[in-house]
Amino acid sequence: MNDRPLTLMAVHAHPDDEVTSTGGVLAKYAAEGVTTIVVTCTDGRCGDGPGGVKPGQPGHDPEAVAVTRRHELEASCATLKVTHLETLGYHDSGMMGWPTNEAPGAFWAAPLDEAAGRLAALIEKYRPDVVLTYDENGGYGHPDHIQVHRVTMAAVALAPVDRVYMSALPQSAMREIGERMRELGIGLDEIESAEAQPMGWPDEKITTWVDVAPVLDQKFDALSAHASQGDGAFFIGLGRETFATVMGVETFVRVGADAGGSSVKEDDLLTGLR
């Protein structure tokens, strides 16, 4: 019998991504004695600079932004009690269509076999029982998120693991977030247009719903660590009570499961592995 602690690895694109979709499960399983690893693929240099200055605007220093975001990532992972933090060392590619997509060192431009080899080496080092990634569209079409999916799936082909999950926000949650935003007088373009093209996954295709309510204070504080970024500040600005109503469950699709039916319905990423 193998007495090695169960190990969970979450592969993410940028500093702060580790919180929004998996901060709860990272904190939850760390508290249960599970070894947790966060792999962040890019340095976040295309994020906001001081005062919210955007890439290409005066005062935006990509190198300085990357340093700031590394410190924030370390603080966030400490709050979530992450056991090991690893980075792949690629540059943030920016949004789809930006010139930074093809810049030297950009993750989007990285050869798939090279990036997958780096991640596979970490999988072999830590031997995770479960790996978390994004879906084929990266959740919302960001090139680095799409690349994370491609790289992760190629890496687990090289270094197989017991179980792979994709973060997947259900459409019901997107509707609830939209309603909460409207109640607060806040508009989100993506959510406002959801009727024309619903965001997220149909609820019936979500295989795994994990209650993370007991660790929501940690998740809130971890996101607060990313103070330089406006998107994180937006969610923190909701306050703890509203944050809890929209962030209390984290949802996933288990790769290889019957995601179109009801044969797999879990409330635990480690079902059958404990």
Record the SSE blueprint:
Elements lengths: L6 E6 L4 H4 L2 H9 L3 E8 L19 H18 L4 E7 L21 H15 L3 E4 L9 H16 L4 E5 L3 H13 L5 H4 L15 E4 L4 H9 L5 H7 L2 H9 L1 E6 L20
What's the architecture of the largest domain, going by CATH? 3-Layer(aba) Sandwich
* Separate helix tally: 10
Q: H/E element string?
A: EHHEHEHEHEHHEHHHE
Rg (C-alpha, Å) = 18 Å
* Mean pLDDT level: 90
Helix content: 25-40%
Under CATH, the topology of the largest domain is which? Rossmann fold
As a percent range, the share of strand residues is 5-15%
In order across it, which strands form the biggest sheet? 3-2-1-4-5-7-6
Major sheet: 7 strands, mixed
Coarse morphology: globular
Work out the count of structural domains: 2
The CATH class of the largest domain, by name, is Alpha Beta
Q: What's the end-to-end separation, in Å? A: 12 Å
Low-confidence stretches: 190-196
CATH superfamily of the largest domain: LmbE-like
Structure description:
- The protein is of the alpha/beta class and 274 residues long.
- It is 38% helix and 15% strand.
- It has helices spanning 17-20, 23-31, 62-79, 112-126, 143-158, 171-183, 189-192, 216-224, 230-236, 239-247; strands spanning 7-12, 35-42, 84-90, 130-133, 163-167, 208-211, 249-254.
- A seven-stranded mixed beta sheet has the order 3-2-1-4-5-7-6, with helices on both faces.
